[in-house]
Write a structure and sequence with these properties.
Elements (H helix, E strand, L loop, with lengths): L3 H21 L35 E6 L4 H15 L2 E6 L5 H11 L5 E5 L3 H7 L9 H7 L2 H6 L1 E2 L2 E2 L2 E7 L1 E5 L10 H11 L7 E4 L5 H11 L19 H12 L13 H9 L3 E6 L4 H7 L3 E4 L13 E9 L6 H11 L2 H11 L6 H4 L2 H4 L2 H10 L3 E2 L10 H12 L5 H18 L2
Parallel strand pairs: 1-2, 1-3, 8-9, 11-12
Antiparallel strand pairs: 3-11, 4-5, 6-11, 7-9, 7-10
Length: 434
């Protein structure tokens, strides 16, 4: 595969050479300055075509990824070694921890050559200087993956990472209790009126209301936003906009469906109720597919219901990616493996082995994925999601938002005052860097 950017640069250089030659001849046709041999003026040879990327001699790679990815990574590593003669060893370190570890281990020369991460960590990695831009394979990566996924991995107009899978939240439902996810919240309320029994711990629907990630679909659906245009402006926080306050008020009103303290709702409680037939709809992500399939015989997944304003809910989403350590001794080999392990064939293998949802459009459009009811539902919801902002200021959202959700849900506080306080706290924390 040729490096798109480098090839474009060579083409530009050739064009400039021709242009300058034309100017030097008083604007005459450039062909007048080219001899019969076809060389450029002064008998200079034209620029050589860009070579293929090849591994460094003696290259050996290490990759960090989560325990659930071990089998997938090892089969890809074996295929890569057979093709390129480069051995890749696996070390267990999940995507949620690897970037933070790399900030320390990369400069010390002990970090993995390639590591898994989530797109919202890019700001942290770029600031620390530990991730290498995806330059050689950029054009191919952009062409073969979901635009939403590629944009999520683009930071300050530079592509970082090699997208491997996508994830977001959607609505699991027990088909023995409800036929499908209702189209809107009015229909959910109608169903709850016949199903809910608080004393028996029976509920129509549940999500982790006190968690900012889980409750964001309300805010995203109403049109509130975190950091301005495309999540890149830390000075523009729209959570206390008219839309943000409307979202907070509606979310607060749903306590009638789930009359519990936010601290009494978590993943384990939801899973227990759902698998025992006491919860009809359970909002979660693809990470719960395996365990919920074991506990619910007739499991379904649907997109979120529409809000009272008629618009669909928009959850946060994440793009899992491989990143190349900026301090690797073998950048060519590392780039080659990161591209290899995220191609269409390997994303399909990852889907088959672990259920990871492909970012690659060819893999996502395969019959195996399209005919999988659960995978296709999550991918449909992903296309109507908001990738988490990746700027460092994103770290300042979670604590203020958690406190706000507690005030809204548990204490019944005024939505406008609560959301104003969220924005005030976030701006203060961003300014002080706390």
């Amino acid at each position: 595969m040729k490096k798109g950017k480098k090839f474009s640069f060579m083409s530009l250089s050739l064009a400039m050479t021709v242009l300058l030659a034309a100017c030097g001849s008083g604007g005459s046709d450039a062909s007048n300055n080219t001899g019969e041999s076809g060389t450029t003026p002064d008998n200079e040879a034209p620029p050589a075509e860009v070579e293929e990327l090849t591994p460094e001699e003696g290259a050996m790679l290490t990759i960090w990824d989560g325990g659930d990815q071990k089998g997938f990574v090892e089969q890809a590593a074996a295929a890569f070694e057979e093709k390129y003669g480069v051995k890749v060893s696996y070390t267990e370190l999940g995507a949620d921890k690897a970037m933070t570890q790399m900030v320390t281990d990369g400069p010390a020369g002990v970090g993995a050559d390639i590591f898994a991460g989530v797109h919202d960590q890019i700001g942290q990695g770029v600031t620390a200087g530990v991730i290498m831009p995806n330059d050689w394979f950029e054009e191919d990566i952009r062409a073969r993956n979901s635009e939403l996924a590629v944009n999520a991995l683009t930071y300050e107009d530079i592509l970082y990472g090699y997208p491997k899978s996508v994830e977001t939240t959607a609505v699991f439902y027990n088909k023995d209790l409800i036929d499908a996810v209702p189209a809107n919240w009015d229909e959910i309320k109608e169903f709850a009126a016949t199903f809910n029994d608080t004393k028996a711990n029976k509920f129509a629907i549940m999500w982790d209301v006190g968690n900012g990630y889980s409750s964001y679909p309300f805010f995203g659906g109403y049109g509130a936003y975190v950091f301005g245009n495309d999540g890149t402006d830390p000075t523009d926080i729209g959570l206390n906009s008219e839309q943000g306050v409307e979202a907070a008020a509606f979310l607060q009103s749903l306590k009638e469906l789930m009359p519990l303290k936010s601290s009494d709702i978590n993943g384990d409680i939801r899973k227990s109720l759902f698998t025992s037939g006491k919860l009809a709809m359970n909002i979660s992500g693809p990470w719960d597919v395996g365990s919920l399939k074991e506990g619910v015989t007739n499991l379904g997944v649907g997109v979120y219901p529409a809000l009272p304003n008629g618009d669909p809910m928009k959850p946060f989403s994440g793009v899992k990616s491989y990143f190349v350590n900026a301090y690797t001794k073998y950048p060519n080999a590392a780039k080659l493996f990161a591209d290899f392990i995220t191609n269409a064939e390997n994303q399909m293998k990852n889907f088959e082995m672990t259920g990871a949802l492909p970012s690659n459009t060819e893999a996502a459009g395969s019959d195996a994925v399209k005919n999988d009811e659960i995978a296709s539902a999550f991918l449909a919801q992903f296309e109507n999601s908001i990738p988490m902002p990746s700027i460092p200021a994103m770290a300042q959202l979670w604590s203020p938002m958690e406190a706000a959700l507690s005030d809204l849900w548990n204490n019944g506080k005024d939505p406008k005052a609560v959301m104003d306080n969220v924005v005030e706290q976030m701006k203060s924390n961003i300014q002080t860097g706390s």
